[in-house]
Amino acid sequence: MKLYTRTGDGGETSVKGGRVRKDDIRVEAYGTIDELNSFVGQAAALAAAAGQLDGLAAELLEIQQELFDCGSDLAFRDPAGRDLKLTPEAAERLEGWIDAHTDAAPEITRFILPGGSEVSAVLHVCRTVCRRAERRAVTLSAEVEVPAPVMTYLNRLSDYFFAAARAANARLGVEDTAYIRSADVFRKRDS
Fold first, then answer.
1. Range 126-156 burial, b when 16+ CB lie within 10 A, else e
2. Rounded to two decimals, what is the model's pTM?
3. Can you state the subunit structure given in the record (predicted)?
């Protein structure tokens, strides 16, 4: 099997249902999700290498699968009547993981700087790329139907990366660095 097809040499690519320009907003949306997936893979590798973050590495592997589902669902020119891969349960599971990671980290009242441990730093990169992917999906939704589970998932996923980054630092004994000019912006957790 050859990896190159030469069909995209003129600036077009295939989507499910036809061909579009490579700078089409649909391609931009699922391409940004693909970029995010690569950073998630890096974070998973770092978490696995850290030893004490095996649960995090397993979560990230599941997220990589779901990001492929998101990209697949966005690749339809017309998703109506299609069997889509991402289900609402994926975002619900993220919420449970977010809660667990939030409980594993010390409370914060101020914004924090991205970083700390190497794992946490990459998870913060994942968070920001995820927000960009979400913005691209919102732009796409102004033109065509975007499956609701994809929109919800991307919104929840950036929160997951923030919570996971903080929990990774806590588990590795690395303190978050507060943004020193931040006002108190986070409320106390409900007990």
1. bbebbbbbbebbeebbeeeebbebbbbbbbb
2. 0.90
3. Homotrimer.
What confidence score (pLDDT) does residue 183 get?
83
Please state, as a whole number, how many other Cβ atoms lie within 10 Å of the Cβ of residue 28: 18
Tokens representing residue 45 in the block: 């590798």
- Residue span of the structural domain in which 114 resides: 18-178
Backbone phi, psi, residue 19, to 5°: -125, 150
Contact 121, 127 (CB under 8 A): no
Instruction: Report if residue 70 sits inside a domain.
Output: yes
Nearest residue to 157 (alpha-carbon basis) of 116, 129, 120? 129
All residue ranges of the chain with pLDDT < 70 are 7-9, 12-23, 78-81, 188-191
Count of structural domains within the chain: 1
Distance CA 28, CA 24 (A): 6
Considering the domain boundaries, does residue 60 fall inside one? yes
189: in domain: no
Q: What CATH number did the domain enclosing 155 receive?
A: 1.20.1200.10
